[in-house]
Amino acid sequence: MGEVVLRLEGITKNFGALKANENVSLNLEKGEVLALLGENGAGKTTLMNILFGQYTADSGRVEVFGKTLPPGMARAALDAGVGMVHQHFTLAHNLSVLENVILGTSSLWSWKLRYKLARQQLLELANRYHLKINPDAKVSSLSVGERQRVEILKALFRQAKILILDEPTAVLTPQETESLFETLTEATEQGLSIIFISHKLHEVMKIAQKVAILRHGKLVATKETKETSPNELAALMVGNPINPTAVTKRESGPVLMELLNVSTDTQHQSKGLQNVSLRLCSGEIVGLAGVSGNGQTSIADLVAGLITPSQGKLHLDGKPINRWSPRQSVLSGIARIPEDRHHAGTIADFSLTENSIIERYRDQPFARHGWVNWQAAVGFTQELIKQYDVRCPGPDTRIRFLSGGNMQKLILGRVLQNDPRVILAHQPSRGLDIGAVHYVHKELLEARQKGAAILLISEDLDEILKLSDIIHVSSEGRVSPPFQRGKVTPTELGGWMSGAAFAKQESMHAS
Amino acid sequence: MEILEIFLTASFWTAAIRIASPLILATMGELICERAGVLNLGIEGIMVAGAFVGWFGAYIGMGLWGGVLLAFVVGMFLGLLHASMTVSLGLSQHVVGLGITLLATSLTYYAYRVALPEVTSPPKIEAFQPISVAILAYIPILGPAMAEQTPLTYLAIATVLITSFVLYRTPLGLALRAVGENPSSVAAQGLSVLGLRIGAVVVGSGLMALGGAFLTLSAFDSFFFGMVNGRGWVCIALVVFGAWKPHKAFLGAILFAAFDAFQIRLQQSTIGADIPYQIFLMMPYFLSIAALVVMSRKAEVPAALMVPFYKGER
To answer: Which residues of B touch A112 (CB under 8 A)?
Structure first.
């Protein structure tokens, strides 16, 4: 057994009647990766906030390298050598990498920023941990993976010996995740100890030596990864065994929507499309895989009516569409689960009721002679809450107070309630915990069963492979030919994701 | 030809820099506030208060520098009032800022009436006189015009250099810029977001008051109503014009002042005889708006400007 570097002892924290943490004890040993597993709301974040002095525990204590930390002091953990990479990065976008790294490392009242020395130290660190970075690049110009690298370097620059990563892979591509894992392995070999917070089971199995599982604020078990299985972990996490979602075979129906050789102009940060063809059939899930930023947003916006093709045609029920707008899209029975549920999916300060009718407030039964029929709206919302198990105080609650999972359930309900013909599901399970992901998948499969044509855009290859009848891959605004379920391997899809397979295809055409 | 010759005279540029000085001081103050994420619309009122208090200090015998100091302290106090509402309580920066402007302006006029109930014409003081700094004359173009100014103008120019140095070369400046971009980045380092923002607003407001005091202690020698005359709002625009960078905002202030000095001379020239003088008065503002539109399109606004920070919220 190695030296214990971090010890949490009997941590208890109550928020009113809610027991956020109940007598949680953990040991982290030198050079190991300890995974902290639990659903949203299981108490992981509260525990870390106590460690970092954001909250004061009702009882229990935190010990780092044998010394007890004073409770409620934000700097204490940092000074003791604990670094945290938050799920939402704490970087200033208009500042350079170097500026972000040295922020707060010297006294505010000192005269000089030691840019030169800091740059040298940063480059040394980057070299040692194989984290390639340009110290002078503005953070706004970096990809998500690179930003995470900056966060890790920030912690290392402060001589962190213990690194805490909160859901680090939630925003990464498979390749970036792979390289993060290499970095973490490298770091532990150099003597760092890591707490890896996640709810992705296969990642936990891969990177961690030990897993601590939290459920409803209590530590339910600590397991060696060697002696456990993903299924066992899932059961411990959720509290009851999870049945894998079964995908039944289904004959696909008529073509409902079709993109024919569509090209679009470049939109803001999203790549324009080049000659894309897609076909959405009734009772079929079409999965679009690929690293985000490769044209997925353009395809989603196109289907939702936010943009129109610069070339090519959109067909609905075999007929070309002439006028195309978000309103037309809604009226044609296209339901949309937007990528960003906080910004595009909901209005944070509107109530659940207002959010529920937001796409249909002009139509029966929610509007009568130009007036909103609140009775119908509230009734509809109550039905959604009941049917889709949205945990909330009531229809008048502002939606910002809902957890991501519950918010998504409401959006799902809003979308599915009147049996849409086409469903655009853009990253429908991103950032959700395992229970909520299952729920989303189940609902999508049910809609498929009822004959909806579903376009599933996801960065999670496992999700695509599990749900899709047909798989496309997008890369640089191009879309691969369709692959049938089970007729393609993840490696092949990876070739299309990186763009290599596109080049091959083109050279074959040329010869 | 006559028009262009105006630009070549040293006296024109001397006037331009004198007109620019209060703008420079107050613009640096506003810039510091906004870089930390707080829009300070109290600027106009704080300048009025600074103008009166600075003059009053000198009038009651505290000396010119005593007046300057008094103005700075009163400015900081008004800044603290602003910050306690906008930063600590997270109230609307627009409403609080305009409130401070109304409050400070009215209080100032009230104080003036109470202090000097029986005067008909504003009493005068012995204002700052130009001192010559011969070395500055060697600076190309603006040099000769900079060499013959009052001490407060030199203070204004020093403020630009100091602001620039602090913002870009010190840990404090880095923390200030970061707190205006993403307060969480500062909070994650265990630094106080509220402390930094309050400090920025307090010091910035002090500088605004100095800008006001320049008017009564340097440009004129007495205090009268309406003398700030919208200069505070010009400074808000200058910060945007300067893309939140001290040196650019400084140049903006000089440019605006040059337009102003130019229109005064045009009014006096033969061309000006047939044109209503209001057209000339309008000119600096009109040209500023035009320049603002051209210059500020690519500017990077501090991302957290006007976004209050609450602990524990993401």
So the answer is: 169-170
